[in-house]
């Protein structure tokens, strides 16, 4: 994870979809020094990578707001999910 500039924090997340429609995701928030701030994980009842990608962003944004941060960098590997959020 590349360092960010203060006051930004960075969200890194990942997700997985299994046969049968089960999915899970998780993410971590770190400050500009790479220090752990918070994390999340969730079991999802959806079998689509797109939906899992959107949940990762939503849960990460929710966690970011809950810790009181308004400057966020999202690193995400599902480009379409990110574009849908813009």
From TrEMBL:
InterPro entries: RNase_H-like, RNaseH_domain. Pfam families: RVT_3. GO terms for molecular function: nucleic acid binding; RNA-DNA hybrid ribonuclease activity. Residues 14-83 form the RNase H type-1 domain. It comes from the Eukaryota. This is RNase H type-1 domain-containing protein. It comes from Arachis hypogaea.
